[in-house]
Amino acid sequence: MTKQTFRPDFLWGGATAANQLEGAFDRDGKGLSVADAMPGGKQRFTILGSKEFDWTIDPENYIYPNHRGIDHYDRFKEDIALFAEMGFKCYRFSIAWTRIFPKGDETTPNEAGLKFYDGLIDECLKHNIEPVITISHYEMPLHLAKEYGGWKNRQLIDFYERFANTVLTRYGKKVTYWMTFNEINSAFHFPALSQGMVQSNGGGDYQNVFQAWHNQFVASSKAVKIAHEINPNIQIGCMIIYATTYSMNANPVNQMATLIQNQEFNFFCTDVQVRGKYPAYTQRTYEKYGVDEQALEITQEDLDLLAAYPVDYIGFSYYMSAAIDETLSEEEAEMVSGNLLGGVRNPFLEASEWGWQIDPEGLRIALNELYNRYEKPLFIVENGLGAIDTVEADGSINDDYRIDYLRKHVEAMADAVADGVDLMGYTPWGCIDLVSASTGEMSKRYGFVYVDLDDEGNGTLNRSKKKSFDWYKQVIETNGKNLA
């Protein structure tokens, strides 16, 4: 039994992204996205981070699992029915920009793409599932990355505004919950996914990263303005990666390094999008990363827009925490990986099969840190365990490790609510197995629903329920009270 009941309208659900599950990458007028140019396999990020990579699709040397996804495009009714059986109150998904504007710079939207999301949204509402829509989730048009250089180009503000206006106008009377950009702060370490910038088009220069962020902040505020004008009841949020960060000891050097990493990674983007202004430490950050503030294209009109249209809530992903020890040399430090942010190994934590350190108490800390800093409602829109699942001879999938992970994180959420945090909802990541964003693998599974597909693209695509399916159904039925 949890210590505190969640509010009666708590949004239990699950989360996905269009580019990782829809497939149908070239059907019904859809254009190519940056996700369509990302090779599959454990070397995905290494390839994207190389100086030679220029967004060219090379099917002779690589496979591209995102092209097929899990065929959600044709099977979404089946998938939504499974979510409804679990009792979902909401479903977080994204709209593929390239289904609506195939190249990104057109003036007329693709009606076939709009009709697909008409059907998806209506299917959710038919089952009393609230859609939670991410407008841009790691799938900007490839044309905008290759021909315009990604988000460092100010022209993308207008293209995004047209895209946001189109989908908000089309769906804004039906859909209450929106987010502007997925994990916008991920660009601090890897701008390829959210900003469309790799080494060959400026992704290695922080001048470009911070310019791209500013352009995204302006675009986000324009989307907030449009949303509230279309429907005052719309709640539109930002979305970040949050990695609770610890100093490994009381050495003031490590304490200061932890404070700075929190500011730079966990808070910079939210400070702008939630508070509506750049934080006090901005100039110090620019100087640290060699950014010429005078060369950034930032107008007074931009700053006024940011101040006038902050987001309504904070959505964030939480998978793991990070630890810092600045006193160790590279040879001495035992480093671990994470969700685009690593750190030194924390001896008090266990790790997943992919090396991400599991820290439920860190989620309670994250919720308290965010809520006490901003006093805006919070929405955990990604959380989960990527693991290899085994199908038994009888077809069952006994993912007790996933249940244990999620149970402990829901307990931490309940503790945070008891602490006074205003928590809107919880949508665990990859509620149905999908293509991993970091590796393009299917074997790194998160879902309550198993999809018969392997890393090479072999399988029936049939859906089956894991043990965690019934466990999560029970959690939702009891509004988080029964976690046994």
Topology:
Elements: E1 11-15, H1 18-21, H2 44-48, H3 72-86, E2 90-94, H4 97-100, H5 111-126, E3 130-136, H6 142-148, H7 155-171, E4 177-181, H8 191-195, H9 206-230, E5 235-241, E6 245-247, H10 252-275, H11 282-288, H12 300-308, E7 314-317, E8 322-324, E9 335-336, E10 343-344, E11 350-351, E12 357-358, H13 360-374, E13 378-382, H14 400-419, E14 423-426, E15 449-451, E16 463-465, H15 467-477
Parallel strand pairs: 1-2, 1-14, 2-3, 3-4, 4-5, 5-7, 6-8, 7-13, 13-14
Antiparallel strand pairs: 9-10, 11-12, 15-16
Q: How are strands sequenced across the largest beta sheet?
A: 1-2-3-4-5-7-13-14
CATH homologous superfamily heading: Glycosidases
In DSSP terms, counting alpha (H) and pi (I) runs of 4 or more, how many helices?
A: 15
Number of domains: 1
Give your account of this protein's structure:
- The protein is α/β, with parallel strands linked by helices and 484 residues long.
- The protein has a single domain, classed as Alpha-Beta Barrel (TIM Barrel), CATH 3.20.20.80.
- It has helices spanning 18-21, 44-48, 72-86, 97-100, 111-126, 142-148, 155-171, 191-195, 206-230, 252-275, 282-288, 300-308, 360-374, 400-419, 467-477, and strands spanning 11-15, 90-94, 130-136, 177-181, 235-241, 245-247, 314-317, 322-324, 335-336, 343-344, 350-351, 357-358, 378-382, 423-426, 449-451, 463-465.
- Helix 7 runs parallel beside helix 9 and helix 9 crosses helix 12 (300-308).
- The radius of gyration is 21 Å and the shape is globular.
- The model has no long low-confidence stretch (mean pLDDT 96).
